[in-house]
Amino acid sequence: MKNIIPLTMLCCAASWVGAAEYHVAQTGCDDRADGSAARPWRTIQRAADVAEAGDGVTIHGGVYREWVK
User: Are 10 and 22 a contacting pair, CB within 8 Å?
Assistant: First the structure.
């Protein structure tokens, strides 16, 4: 549960000016994509590694079986 809180805070801060918007979806090819809506990442961990304060991360529906650090 501790690992979900920082990602949630990043999602809430997406309204800042200049913030990037990233997407994670089970339909994503892999984590080498750019994280856009058209080319989402496959894992939440990739978003956690790349996103900075103020960025938004949209995690599309599905079950993600992974540990996020």
Answer: no
Ranges of beta strands (E only) in 1-69 are: 21-24, 56-59
CB-side exposure of 48: number of CA atoms within 13 Å? 13
Q: Please, are residues 13 and 53 in contact by the beta-carbon 8 Å criterion?
A: yes
pLDDT at 55 over 60: yes
Measure Cα distances from 44 to 9, 17, 37 in Å: 14, 23, 14
Q: pTM for the full model?
A: 0.72
Percent pLDDT > 90 in the chain is 65
**11: helix, coil or strand?**
helix
